[in-house]
Amino acid sequence: MGNKWDHFYKKSYAQRLQLIADLVGLSDAQLQLIHQNEDQVSGELVENNLTSYPLPEGVVTGLIVNGRHHLVPMVTEEPSVIAAASNGAKLLSAGEGIHCAIPEKLVSGQVIVKHAEIKAVSKFVETNRQQILNIANQSHPSILKYGGGAQKVAVRELSPTFLSLDLSVDTGEAMGANIINTMLEAISNWLSDQLQVETTMAILSNFADEEVVEVTGQVAVAKLASKSLDGRQVAQRIADASEVAQLDVKRATTHNKGIMNGVDAAVIAFGNDWRAVESAAHAFAARQGVYKGLSTWQVVGDQLVGEMALPVPIGFVGGASKVLPLVAVNQQIAQIHHSQDEMQVIAAVGLAQNLAALKALVTDGIQKGHMALQLKSLALSNGATTQELPAVLAQLRQIANPNSQTVKEILKTIRR
Ligand code: NDP
User: pTM to 2 decimals?
Assistant: First the structure.
């Protein structure tokens, strides 16, 4: 007799749910929760669909990018991220706001070739450059209609055993993973046929160094004053913090996590592949062989000036963007109409998020603001209902360093 989990994907939704429920003993209430969130359309995106997993969505206000105001929908489970991004956006909103530029937007991919002579392959590619680009375009002809297409091809030696043929493609409004993968497979087949070489794989590279957003933002130092420090002191401390992120991998990783708090939340709201953006960002942070902070801040005259270069490999179409219904709503809320607008807004949120985090770190410390906003999550995760929340929060605010025990005691008193 076959295992009842065999061909799980072929079973009906009800059968799959029943199998899981029987195995782990799900209650009726738990089954109802699963059902309630099940969405058949988005369920088609993944295999063995069970339910849809809701995450909170909020909106960042006050962001100005290249002179245009944007509201930015953000999907995140972390309290304080959206408040901090709005705070950073406000600080960077003078004049034209945050300046973003995208020097090029090309997706790159590689065909890995084994046991081939670099000189022979390079010469072959040089001689047949146009044909290789044509083969790529013919394998996915609609990309020409969208104004894109394969643009560059080069050969790199990885070791005496392996070569990489690198292809760069303008994938129009799409993130382009599927587009370039189709092209690379066509080139791989042709190459192994023509040169009688073994190709190990043909796949896009998530090292998105040809789709980088250059971001700059500035704030008058006077606007940074805190209760105990004047604006220039705070600005200098932010510059110092950014210097430490250039010196030390421990600090650089956390510095960049702060940037990605904003970036990921916006990437998810726009229905994009955040793993691609994450891997690109961290690889880019280590592009010189040492992992560094992605942004730097300097005091220049009476301004604190921030700069960041961030790869943002996303698409305005394709992937889940036209399947998840909220994506179109979020694009409208953000007033973005093209992938380049989306890239710029995402990167700008990253810089705003970074400024807010550094400012909090070098003044009050991160816990003060963070914990004030985390109190809600502390209360809810320890059993407070939304009705009980105001009363619980009022008491928690009076207590230094509250914890789960504190919430439980407050709840006991309230419920009595
Ligand atoms: P899709 O194949 O979903 O979308 C691209 C398609 O959108 C095009 O082929 C084209 O189809 C259509 N399209 C409509 N308008 C335009 C336009 N203006 N410009 C370009 N294309 C347009 O996705 P992508 O190729 O963008 O790939 C992204 C998906 O791939 C994501 O889901 C990602 O998670 C996944 N992925 C990621 C990998 C990675 O990061 N390593 C690896 C593999 C997949 P048509 O010709 O039919 O009109």
Answer: 0.93
